[in-house]
Amino acid sequence: MGNLDLSSIWLIVALVAVGLFAASMVLLFVPSELRESVLRGYRATRRREALEASALLKMFWPAIKLCTHYASLINAKQWKEQKSLLLRNAGEPWGLSPDEFLGLTIAATVVSGFGAFFFCYSTNMGYGLVVVGLFLGMVLPNLWLSDKAQARLQSINRGLPQALDLIVLSMGAGLDFIGAVRHVVEKWSDKRDPLCEELSRFLHELSLGKTRKEALEDLAYRAPTELVKAFVTNATQAEKRGTPLVEVLRIQAEVARTKRFQTAEKVAGRAGVVILMPLMFIFAATVLVMFGSLIVKGFRGQLF
Q: Are 51 and 64 in contact (CB under 8 A)?
């Protein structure tokens, strides 16, 4: 027990030493123009909130920054374009750029590899676990980003029909489109909701001088779902043709709600097929428990 405690202490000391070494490498070897770069706008807000919310991320950020410097030297244009699309769909978590996400992946791989190595060393286990640690370090950041992007787009699709209904009601009460969107955003209960954040960015871009069409197109660019694209297309076409926007939005809300119900019905229809395989295993296990002894006796010829 004493040896195990001593090994754990050495493991903690080694991990702290690796973190301090990474921080010193950032300060010594990362070019000054990279260290002094300042984010602005939405990404800066995301970065500041993430670092303030997580002490662990703040501790390892120098290592991520160092890995980002070397990741920017890697010529993986297609991979970075794919991650740029995923980062956009995920709402740019932590204010990450494609290079920074690659740096995060490299840092996670190195940290998990060292962690697995010290775990194997302290517990006298086989060092094959290091390969598992390296693999997890490479895969987990990508799984995290993909899951975050999917969850964000699904949340936007779920909330859009209700948001359109509220906008239509507000316009029916005498507000214009922009005033109705602002009213809905102000009354939104969860300010961290992805749809609320996107509508807030839409209003912010309008205040910066963009036209309504440009701000709506940016909204569709940041949240490229079918419902959002249809909403943006209908709104811009109504503005172009002079059609009453409130009627267009009312129809769009009905269409969005119908598509949502259809999607739910498809998921419910697949549930029976998905659950069939687990039920087969449960049935087989039940048969073995009930008639296992009889089956064994039958194979041995001792049944009768």
A: no
Structural contact between residues 181 and 202, judged by C-beta atoms closer than 8 angstroms: yes
Same-domain check for residues 112 and 171: no
Q: Are 60 and 115 in contact (CB under 8 A)?
A: no
Q: Say how far apart CA 215 and CA 263 lie, in whole Å.
A: 28
Distance CA 171, CA 182 (A): 11
Exposure class string for 163-199: b at 16+ Cβ within 10 A, else e: bbbbbbebbeeebebeebbbbbbeebeeeebbbbbbb
Q: Which two tokens stand for residue 194?
A: 């992805």
123-151 pLDDT tens trace? 777 777 888 889 999 999 999 999 999 99
Per-residue pLDDT for 171 more than 70? yes
Q: Average pLDDT for residues 60-72, to the nearest whole number? A: 86
Nearest to 216, CA basis, from 201, 196, 197: 201
How much is the pLDDT for 27? 55
* Burial class of residue 300, CB neighbours in 10 A (0-12, 13-18, 19+): exposed
**Worst-scoring range by mean pLDDT, 10-19, 22-31, 123-132?**
22-31
Specify whether 10 is located in the same domain as 117. Answer: yes
Tens-place pLDDT, residues 205-247: 999 899 999 999 999 999 999 889 988 998 888 888 877 888 8
| Tokens 């002490």 belong to residue | 55
Say if CB 103 and CB 69 are below 8 A apart.
yes
Domain that holds residue 93: 2-127
Query: Are residues 251 and 167 part of one domain?
Result: yes
Give the pLDDT of residue 2: 44
Yes or no: say if 219 and 228 are a contact pair by the CB < 8 Å rule: yes
Residue holding tokens 């300010």? Answer: 191
Say if 266 falls within a structural domain. no
